[in-house]
Amino acid sequence: MNWTTRALLGVALPILTIAVFIVLLAYSLTRLSEVERDMRIEATQNMLWVISRAHLASLQLSEAAATSTADYADQPELRLRYNVFLSRFSLLDDGPQRRRMEQLGFANALRDFRNVLPELAGLIGSPEIPDIERLHGLLAPYNAMLGQAANKAMVAEWDDLGNKLDISRDQLWHIIVSLAGIALAGAALFIHFLLAIREARRRTRLLNKEKAFSELLIGSSSEGIIAVDKERCCTVWNEAAERLFGVTVDKTIGHRLADVSGFFQIGRIEQAIGEALAGQSAALLDQPFFLPGQSDALYVDLRCFSLRDGERIVGSILLISDVTERRAAQRAIADHRDRLEQLVQERTQELDAALTRERATAELYRNFGTMVSHQFRTPLAIIDSALQRLMRRRNNLTPDEVLQRGSNARQAIERLTKLVESTLDSARLDAGQIEIRIQPCDLGQLVYDLCLRQSEQTPDRKIEVIPVEGHAAIAHCDPVHAENILTNLLSNAVKYSPLGTTIDVSVETKNCRVECAVSNQGALDRQDGPNVVFERYFRGTNAEGRPGIGIGLYIARTLARMQEGDVRIERGEDDRITFVLDLPCATTVTAKDEAPLSHSEPA
Amino acid sequence: MLAIPEGPFVLEVRGGISRTNIDGAAYFDMEMLKALPSARLETSTAVTDGVRRFGGFLMRDLLAHVGAHGSTVIATALNDYMIEIEINEFDRYDVLVAYEMDGEPLLSSDKGPLWIVYPRDQHAALKDIRYDYRWVWQLQRLDIR
After folding, report:
1. Would you call B88 helix, strand, or coil by DSSP?
2. Do A190 and A228 share a domain, yes or no?
3. Would you say residue A402 lies in a domain?
4. For a Cys staple, A599 with which of A47, A389, A452, A562, CB 3.0–4.6 Å?
C-alpha cells in the first residue's frame, strides 16, 4: 500500500463518509419537515361537513316554510332557518370553500343559485304565506347540487387523503432509506474511529518502545550526553555524564548547567552552548577540566548541537567525551618520537664521525703511501747506486773510495732506520703505548742545551737564544718528550729556513704557563691554513727535496697535548714563522699530580 | 342583577353565573353587548380570504360581567352547532366575540350577529383544526358548566 492510497483511505474516505452523512441527514430533515408541513389539515378539507350543513339548513328551511303554512306564528322560526340557510350558503360561496366548489365543478350551479336568491328572499320576506311549491322548486336544484357536491367532495377528499398518504409513505420511505444510509455512514465512521484508535495505540506503543530504546542508547553511551532547554536548564543527563562529572541525575534535571558544574561557567564553554542555542554547531577539543578535590586535570572534547522542533530551536545537546587517556597516549607517542629523533641524531653524528675518521684514515694511508714512495725510495736508490759502483769498479777502487761509498750507503740506511722509527713512534702514539712521566723541568736549561747541540751539528746556521727573564722557567712536563718536541721544532727551523738567516729561540713564563718559541724565516702555504702542518704525513711545497715523512709536528703536538700543553703556529709580520711549545708552569702543580700519568688515545 | 334588555335578545348566557336578569339567565341585546369594553383584532380566518378587522368584546370580559363560575363554556349557534370550550382558554388568549368585520356589522344571514374569533395570526398554536372548530358563528347561547 503506497502513500497515496493510505492518505486516501485515512483522510479522503472519512471526509467522504462525513459528507454522505451530512447530505443524508439534510435530506432526511427536509423530508421530515415536508411531512410535518403536510400533516396540517385545512378547514377546506372538511368540505363534506360544510356541504352537509348547508344541505341540512336548506332542508330545515323547506321544513320551516311548510310548517309556517300551518301555523303562521312560526314566522320567527322561518326567519331563523332562512338566516341559517343564508349563512351556510354564503360560507359555501365565499373564499376557499367557493374555490373548492369550483374545483369540484359546481361554479355554474353556484352562480345559477345565487341568481335565484332574490326570488327566494322575496318568498320568505313576504307577509303572506309563502308559495311552498315555488320554494321547493327553487331549493330543489340546490339540494340536488349539494347531494352531488357531497358525493364528489367525499371522493376528492379520499383521493386527496390517499395521495397524501402515498406521498407521506414515499417521504417516510425516503427518510427510512436516508436513516439507513446515515446509520451505515455512522457505522463506517465508528469503525474508522475504532481503527484510528487502534492505530493510535499501536503507534503510541511503538513510540514508547522507541523512546525506551533511545533512553537505553543515551544511557549506555560511553559519551556524556546532556540536553538543555532555552534557559540552559538540564533535561537529559546520562550515566556517562554522571561518571564524568560525578553528579547524579537527580541533582541535574531541571537545574541550570552553571549550577551543576563549574565547567559550564567557563567563558568559552558558555559561548559554545550559546552558539548552539543560536543555531550553530560548536566543537571545543581538549578542554581541561578539574573534578572537585582532584589536582590532575581531565581532558574532554565538547560538541554542541542545536535541538530543533521543526524550524524552532528548543534547546541544545552536548556530547562530552573523556579524552584524557588519548591525550596521555598522544603525549607519550610524541615523547617517544622526540627520543627517537634524538637517538637518530646522535647515531647520525656518530656515523658522521666514523665516516670522517674512515676518510681521514684513507687519507692517512694515501699520504703514508706517497711519503713511503718518496722518502723510502730515495735512500734505497742511494744505497743501490753505491753498491752498483762498488760492484762495477771493484778492481780499480781505492780503499778511501770504498769507505766513502760505504759511508754514503750507511747514511742512507741510517735515514731509513730513522724513518722506520718515526713511523713506529707514530704507530705507538696511536696505539696509546707512550708513557708520560710528569716532573718539574727547567725548560730554559733544556733549550740552551739543545740549541748548543744543534749548533754543533749544523755550524753553518746561526741560532740565537734569548735568555730567560727573571726566575728560571720551570715547566711541569716529561723532560724526555719535551726534548723530543723541541728537537723537532729546532730541526724543522733549520731545515725549512733559508741559509744565512737566524733562528730565534726564547723561553718565557706568563700566566702560570711556560712558553718556548722557535722562530725562523719562512713562508707557509696559504691555501690549507696554518694548522695543516700538524697533520700526519703532511708535506708542504717547500718540503720538496728535503728528507722527512711529515710526522714530526704531528708527534710534537700530540705529545705536548698529552702533558696538558700544546704546540701552535704563529706567523709574524716579517715572513717569520714561529712554533710555540706551551706547557703548564711547575709552581701550580700539586704533589698529587706528580704521580706518573698514562695517557691513551682512542684509535 | 343585570338590567332587562330593551331590544331583541341577541345572546343568552346560562348556567354557572351570578348575575342574571330573566328566569335565572342573562339575556343581552346588542346595546348591552356594545356597552362592554370594546376590543379589536386583526387576523385571517379559516373560512375567508385575507386578513379581516374584527370589532367586539373579549369573551373573558363578558364572563366576568355575568360572574361566570365554572370550567367549561358550551357555545351554541343558531343552527344548534354546539362546541365545548375550556373556560381558562379565554384567559390564555384574547378571544373576541365579534359583532363587526371590516367596519360592517355582522349580519344574522352571514356570520352574525356574533362570531367567536381567535387571535389566529397572533398565536401559531391556534392555526390548528382543533381551534378552527371553536370559531362559532351565529352565536346565540353560552352555557357555563
Report:
1. coil
2. no
3. no
4. A562
Give me the phi and psi of A420, to 5 degrees please.
Answer: -65, -40
Compute the residue count for chain A: 603
Shortest distance between the Cα of A45 and any Cα of chain B, in A, equals 10
B108: chain A residues, CB-CB within 8 Å: 83, 87
**Angle at A211 (CA atoms; ends A205, A217), nearest 5 degrees:** 140
pLDDT of A44 reads 55
* Whole-complex ipTM: 0.85
B46, closest residue in chain A (CA to CA)? A43
Q: Summarize pLDDT for B71-110 with one digit per residue, the tens.
A: 999 999 988 889 999 999 999 999 999 999 999 999 888 8
Q: What is the distance of C-alpha A515 from the center of its chain? A: 73
User: Pick from A586, A554, A280: which is nearest to A425 by CA?
Assistant: A554
Range of the domain at A45: 1-220
Domains (ranges, CATH) in chain B?
A: 11-144 (3.90.420.10)
Q: Mutate which of B9, B102, B107, B110 to disrupt the A interface (most A C-beta within 10 Å)?
A: B110
> Do A258 and A152 sit in the same domain of this protein?
no
pLDDT tens for A160-194 read 888 888 888 888 898 899 899 889 888 988 998 89
Binary contact (B108, A87; C-beta < 8 A):
yes
Contacts of B105 in chain A (CB under 8 A): none
Q: Which residues contact A527 (CB under 8 A, 6 or more apart)?
A: none
Query: Would you say the pTM of this structure is higher than 0.80?
Result: no
B134 to chain A: nearest residue by CA?
A43
- Summarize pLDDT for A229-284 with one digit per residue, the tens: 988 899 888 888 888 888 888 888 888 888 888 888 888 888 999 998 888 888 88
Average pLDDT for A414-443: 81
